[in-house]
Design brief:
Blueprint (H helix, E strand, L loop, with lengths): L2 E6 L1 H9 L4 E5 L9 E8 L4 E15 L13 E10 L8 H4 L14 H5 L1 E2 L6 E2 L2 H8 L8
Parallel strand pairs: 1-3
Antiparallel strand pairs: 2-5, 3-4, 4-5, 6-7
């Protein structure tokens, strides 16, 4: 698998990035093969420089016009089916991702913190760590001491 760096004009480059152009037509002077990577660099012919936008696509199919050709096709040309490897620009966020709610806060414990940490029952005077166990074994809910 070879990486080929190719110049691409803005109209064709944007069509490849958008997914509207799943092919490339090139002169077959580099020995393109299925599985090769095309590193496309956007080139502005009016200014004569690269714009800085780049994308990578993988060659998925090659047509060289061998055999009975139903269309007029030069033997020194190649048509390559391409698929994006990684988008040049991240896809826009979906509304689901943007409006996702955070986990709701845990409900407050119905028993005061002093009961959970442990305290003396004002009714029977015994120390307890769990109000539920105190209710189960002592027969009443613990009362706060003042």
């Amino acid at each position: 698998m070879t990486i080929h760096e190719l110049k691409c004009w803005p109209e064709g480059f944007q069509a490849v990035v958008d997914g509207r152009k799943p092919f490339e037509v090139r002169k077959d002077d580099r020995g393109f093969e299925v599985g090769d990577t095309l590193h496309l660099r956007e080139y502005d012919p009016d200014v004569g420089t690269y714009t800085g936008r780049e994308t990578d696509v993988r060659v998925t199919y090659i047509y060289r016009g061998v055999g009975d050709v139903p269309i007029r096709f030069h033997t020194w040309m190649v048509i390559m089916g391409v698929a994006p490897i990684w988008p040049a620009e991240p896809p826009p966020a979906t509304p689901d991702v943007m409006t996702r709610r955070k986990r709701p806060p845990a409900p407050r414990h119905p028993i005061p913190a002093s009961y959970i940490e442990g305290a003396d029952c004002g009714l029977c005077g015994r120390f307890y760590l769990s109000a539920m166990w105190h209710r189960l074994f002592r027969g009443h809910w613990p009362q706060r001491t003042r």
